[in-house]
Design a protein that fits this description.
The protein is mainly alpha-helical. The protein is built from 7 helices and 2 strands; from the N terminus they run αααααββαα. The longest helix has 29 residues, at 24-52.
């Protein structure tokens, strides 16, 4: 669920000029709305499902346990997309990323009815594809970071490398825990990438 916020942070760092409000209360309000809709509401809903016994654990190891959470997250993402797609403070590419995430979620929901799929893989696939599209279409070679009062420059290739490394670590941990097979991980990544590719090509 945090992938949406990660991509928002990437947009703000790679090309903050895409946003009319790149700082101040306006940006804080927008970020809070996106966080509330894409992270907080789904998280509360999933915890409630856990509390009433609809799901046995937050790991949701069985396919049937994933149905409710997938529906909740998809509804929240659709609501978010409908509210930001015409908002003049949200760049169209970011709104399209949300749409791509919705497509990936529905594909994952459909596949989940027949075979288990890695939702971590779906998220990582979407993150990597969104990062590649953002940097290739709107990047400027490097980004500037401010850490503890010091300014640093980071080349965009390093950003892509870090995303791939982070994704590899997360997905490897899923394999290590025996939560998924190689096929389930690969299928999840393909679904995450496919959702973004569809939006890039047709929207």
């Amino acid at each position: 669920m945090l992938i949406v916020m990660y991509v928002l942070l990437l947009y703000l760092k790679v090309n903050p000029y895409l946003f009319p409000y790149s700082q101040g209360k306006e940006l804080g309000t927008l970020s809070l709305i996106i966080f509330f809709t894409s992270v907080l509401i789904p998280a509360i809903a999933i915890l409630l499902m856990l509390g009433v016994g609809f799901i046995k654990s937050l790991e949701m190891r069985s396919r049937t346990e994933r149905v409710g959470p997938l529906i909740v997250v998809a509804i929240c993402y659709i609501w978010l997309y409908l509210n930001i797609r015409t908002h003049n403070a949200i760049p169209i590419p970011y709104a399209n990323f949300i749409l791509g995430s919705v497509i990936s979620l529905f594909l994952a929901f459909f596949i989940n009815n027949f075979s288990k799929i890695s939702l971590h893989g779906v998220g990582i696939g979407g993150l990597i594809m969104a990062t590649l599209h953002l940097i290739s279409s709107y990047g400027k070679g490097h980004i500037q970071l401010s850490i503890m009062g010091s300014n640093f420059e980071m080349h965009n290739i390093l950003i892509i490398t870090l995303c791939l490394l982070l994704g590899g670590m997360i997905l490897s941990s899923r394999l290590y825990l025996k939560a998924h097979t190689n096929e389930e991980i690969a299928g999840g990544c393909m679904v995450g990438v496919l959702g973004q590719v569809v939006v890039i090509l047709f929207f």
